[in-house]
Design brief:
Elements: H1 6-15, E1 20-22, E2 29-33, H2 37-47, E3 56-58, H3 65-68, E4 69-71, H4 74-83, E5 88-94, H5 100-103, E6 108-112, H6 117-126, E7 130-132, H7 146-153, E8 159-160, E9 173-176, E10 183-186, H8 192-199, E11 226-229, H9 235-244, E12 249-254, E13 268-272, H10 276-292, E14 297-300, H11 309-319
Parallel strand pairs: 1-8, 3-6, 5-9, 11-14, 12-13, 12-14
Antiparallel strand pairs: 1-2, 2-7, 3-7, 4-5, 5-6, 9-10
Helix pairs in contact: 1-6
The structure holds threonylcarbamoyladenylate (TXA) and magnesium ion.
């Protein structure tokens, strides 16, 4: 965990154009000074991420919204007031303060005030914006603790601010407010229902509209193992079928469908928590564990797609996407 002096050190690294891994309540980010284009370019290099895929700019408070946005529509103000700090990102028109390398050339920018106390201390001490994607290699599972970051990025990151395990566990919900009607580009830690209550209108989920959102490309958030999605009552049978084909099988299944007796030692069984908050918090850890235990296939099912279930289902679909 972080020690005294770590915030100062992280600020120093950011000011010097270095990269700092920052804990947030969703996942760890790989951060750089958003106004230092050279530092931002390094993020893309370290992640192996195409340079036209825009980054989120993290800011210290909703009061800074107007410093980074050219225009803030009324629904965006309401959402920021209600959900920041928190797991929600707003896509707005960018102010000239945002370099185009951050937005991948787009005239819009994604902004978020994270809820983790260390991230907030860092942003407040730094004063500027921190551009940060999730701190994983492009396409891989996002890191939910500092060890995951070190394993994935090693010395490529100059400093890791260790804030323990992430409390939400899936990325922020991205809401685009640049169009005529707000829309969700990526489901995440704030539920669609909660957002809709605040803006008092329906929020479509426009996954396909967000062509430039890499989180929305097939096969993202993906473990090494190939993921098969089936109905919950078919998981065991599908697992047996794959095992007969000689595969090392992992099962990720709801408690109600778990094997009644100690399962076949050749299969790795992970029981998905009934609580969607707990499932979200641990989803990436489960995918990592299935890899670590040598599974080459994983059979899973989608939870009901309301509340946090929408984000969990989205990530499982991405994990199962074509490679
Ligand atoms: O919870 C999170 O959002 C985490 C933490 C670190 O804040 N960050 C994260 O960043 O998930 P990343 O880069 O892995 O995903 C950000 C998503 C991408 O899908 C990106 O394309 C989209 O946000 N995005 C960024 N700027 C955008 C823009 N101007 N228009 C549309 N989508 C944008
Ligand atoms: Mg990511």
């Amino acid at each position: 965990m972080a020690e005294a002096g770590d915030i100062e050190r992280a600020v120093h690294v950011l000011r010097a154009g270095g990269l700092v891994a920052i804990p947030t309540e969703t996942v760890y980010g790989l951060g750089a000074d958003a106004e230092n284009s050279t530092a931002v370019v390094r993020i893309f290099a370290v992640k192996g991420r195409p340079s036209n895929h825009p980054l989120i700019v993290h800011i210290g408070s909703a009061s800074q919204l107007d410093d980074w946005a050219a225009e803030v529509p009324e629904p965006a103000r309401r959402l920021a007031a209600r959900f920041w700090p928190g797991p929600m990102t707003l896509v707005v028109r960018r102010s000239p303060r945002v370099p185009l390398v951050v937005t991948g050339g787009l005239e819009s920018v994604a902004l978020r005030v994270p809820a983790h106390p260390l991230a907030l201390s860092l942003l407040s001490a730094f004063g500027g914006g921190v551009a940060a994607p999730s701190a994983n290699r492009f396409g891989a599972v996002s890191p939910t603790n500092a060890r995951h970051v070190r394993e994935a990025l090693g010395d490529a990151v100059d400093f890791v601010l260790d804030g323990g395990a992430c409390a939400v566990g899936v990325e922020s919900t991205i809401v685009d407010v640049t169009g005529d009607a707000p829309a969700i580009l990526r489901p995440g830690g704030v539920s669609r229902e909660d957002l809709e209550r605040v803006i008092e209108r329906r929020l479509p989920v426009n996954l396909e509209a967000s062509v430039r959102a890499p989180g929305q490309h097939p096969s993202h958030y993906a473990p090494r193992a190939k993921v098969f999605l089936v109905e919950p009552d078919s998981i065991l049978a599908e697992g047996e079928r794959l095992q007969r084909l000689g595969r090392r099988v992992g099962l990720l299944l709801p408690a109600a469908f778990a094997p009644p007796h100690a399962s076949d030692a050749d299969q790795v069984v992970i029981v998905a928590p009934d609580s969607m908050a707990e499932y979200a918090r641990r989803l990436y850890e489960f995918l990592r564990e299935l890899d670590h235990r040598g599974c080459d296939v994983v059979v899973a099912s989608l939870p009901a797609e309301d509340g946090l279930g929408l984000a969990i289902a989205d990530r499982l679909r991405r994990a199962a996407g074509p490679r």
